[in-house]
Write a structure and sequence with these properties.
About 65% of the residues lie in helices and about 5% in strands. By secondary structure, it is mainly α. The protein has a two-stranded antiparallel sheet with strand order 1-2. Helix 5 packs parallel to helix 7. The longest helix is centred in the middle third of the chain and has 24 residues.
């Protein structure tokens, strides 16, 4: 019993220590990309690019600012709809998440959800219950369409 509880303790500590160590890169659909580039490309934003975009936005007139905000909201709604329907993610993401779900189910759930929420905590609890329930839960969550 002592051996099992020690292993579970190390799994929890490892999982909790690994998740915050990931560097999160802000990616957004490139709105101002040339027409020859595909629509679903993503651009990594640096601090300089953000400051430059803010300066450009501040220099616009009120009407132009409102139009840009409307376009951004429309793009955001389209992205959320695509994500819900499963079109926003590629097959390679799903395959990699499935492999990760077998090795570290809570980490796979965290990467799939993008935040620490109830599903993540459920995954940790199920993983602590002899690992297999955590794997099943993570796979069901990742492979479900909704």
């Amino acid at each position: 019993m002592k051996r099992i509880s020690t292993r579970l303790f190390f799994v929890v500590v490892f999982t909790i220590s690994v998740i915050p160590s990931f560097a999160i890169t802000l990616t957004v659909p490139s709105e101002s990309s040339p027409s020859d580039m595909p629509r679903d490309t993503t651009a990594t934003l640096s601090k300089e690019k953000i400051e430059e975009a803010l300066k450009e936005f501040k220099s616009l007139s009120k009407h132009e600012k409102k139009e840009r905000i409307k376009e951004a909201k429309k793009t955001w709604k389209e992205y959320k709809a695509e994500k819900r329907s499963g079109k926003a993610e590629g097959n390679t993401n799903t395959v990699l998440l499935c492999i990760l779900a077998i090795l570290l189910p809570p980490l796979a759930v965290y990467l799939y959800e993008g935040e620490v929420n109830n599903r993540f905590w459920i995954s940790i609890i199920l993983t602590l219950l002899f690992w297999i329930p955590g794997i099943i839960y993570a796979l069901v969550l990742i492979l479900s369409k909704s």
